[in-house]
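User: Could you check the structure of this?
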Amino acid sequence: MPWAERRAQGGGRTRASGVHPLVLLIAVLPVAFCLQARAASDEALQPFQAGYVWVWKGTAIAYSRLDLTHRQDDLWVYSSSTEPRGLGHLYPIRPKLESTMRITAQFVEPLHLKVTGSGTRHDSDVQFDWSEGRATGVYEGKAIDLAVTPGVQDDLSIQIAMIRQLALGHTPEILREIDKNGIRDYLYKRVGAETLDTEIGRIETIVYSTEHPGSPRQTRYWCAPSQGFIPVKVQQTMRGDVQWTMNIESLKRG
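Assistant: Sure, the predicted structure tokens are below.
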């Protein structure tokens, strides 16, 4: 997803070159999860638990678990946690992310984003006040006070916004997300279809890509319509070279 691409760049961000990919997991945990949905309606959105293995240079280095939970009425919580595997144990990072959001048939509104366990450069605590049109708090260790308009998302809620478009049969052309330096636009497109053999079976997927204009990085998602558009594979490349891959290992829906 956009954050996976942008936070690995310069300007105070961790660079991919020379950095173990587990460090980059701080930025990509929510990763590219085309959360489950069959139509743009509240009743179509179901709680789920999904597990993914992160692969770097052919080696599994971490495991992430994602949970979508329905609190009450139109309030939902989406969270992720990551633990190292193999060589990943060389890096004492245990990132946890959680976003509380309001979801209706008309919109997705992030309310509170919290990121811990990522180190002071990456931890975040952001509140959204939609009556005032502001996002305030700390984002990646930097104090922010941003003007936000309807449709602007946080690192996790942007996934819901994307899947609601996919469920309607549309690929979103542009989605907007907060950044510690402002608001960034990300371009989306459908690039093909592929059948994959996964840990949860042989699955037909639709492949989508996203990128920030001018960036050398691109992230692709193999989303499974039969599984409510949850991706079974996510991969980031830079100038054509694979940086990391996520493969689904388990899925429980409902």
